[in-house]
UniProtKB/TrEMBL annotation:
NCBIfam families: Opp2C
Cited PANTHER family: D,D-DIPEPTIDE TRANSPORT SYSTEM PERMEASE PROTEIN DDPC-RELATED (PTHR43386:SF1), OLIGOPEPTIDE TRANSPORT SYSTEM PERMEASE PROTEIN APPC (PTHR43386)
Cellular localization per UniProt: Cell membrane
Primary location recorded for the protein, binned into one broad class: membrane
Spans traversing the lipid bilayer: 24-46, 89-112, 124-142, 148-166, 214-233, 253-274
Protein name: ABC transporter permease
Gene Ontology biological-process entries: transmembrane transport
Pfam families with a match to the protein in the record: BPD_transp_1, OppC_N
Sequence ranges assigned to domain ABC transmembrane type-1 in this UniProt record: 85-274
Protein family per UniProt: Belongs to the binding-protein-dependent transport system permease family. OppBC subfamily.
Membrane topology classification: Multi-pass membrane protein
Lineage top rank: taxon: Bacteria
Amino acid sequence: MNKPAPRRPGVGPHPLRLLRRSPLATLGAVIVLLYALAALAAPLLAPHPPLTQYLEERLDPPSAQFPLGLDQLGRDIFSRLLFGARLSLMVGLVVVVIAGVLGTAVGMAAGFAGGRVDHALMRVTDIFFAFPSLILAMAIAAALGPSLTNAMIAIAMVTWPVYARLSRAQTLVLVRQEFLEAARAVGAGDLRILARHILPNALSPLVVQASFNMGDAILIAAGLSFIGFGAHPPTPEWGVMVSEGRDYITTQWWVPTFPGLAILMAVTGFNLLGDGVRDMLDPRLRRAT
């Protein structure tokens, strides 16, 4: 009886095959892809300019001309949602980049240096962990001044400690490995060891965290905009749209409901995608598959 050829070490199934094993992860990937396409093609897909007002038809329900209805100022909700997707995805990407770079640098420095450096940097991260994320983001945004840019900075400032903890934990494991001793033996400096040996081997949990962090950033940004610390009208931002339409929830339900659903679906999509990315990068699952 012919035996199946052994799989080479380190060679796992294709990521798409692993993704297909999880219907929810596939659904998350589809949702994120649709949002990305909608954001990129917003000028082509939007039937009306996002700031154009049709005052005579304001608060009209969904129709063939206005698929999701009009808001209290007569603006097309569907068009505003498409352009709002651009802002929300931009917020998520900017926050992930800032928080990921800052937190990874702090965590790797703490784990690699050890001693007093590690103690000092981890106490700083503990201070940030001591406050609820939204409350701390509100305080930072209020101190910097209400704007979408300052809201992104505030969100990054409250999310970087997670990356710091993850990268520190990975670094503490890797610094004890023999291949780092070999790198030092051939004359590799600390920066080269961090960049060429530790960082690539510590990326897996950081990538998974970034996937979840995208959804968190979109949700917190919408919350800050809702209470006036983020984007301001007439910006077609989802949190602003929910805030402007909250007085019409019992009469013209479509005004706040569709922006709220856009936030819900975006956060759900990134969370499901994060689960799929975690499964793809889990060595135990790859071996089992």
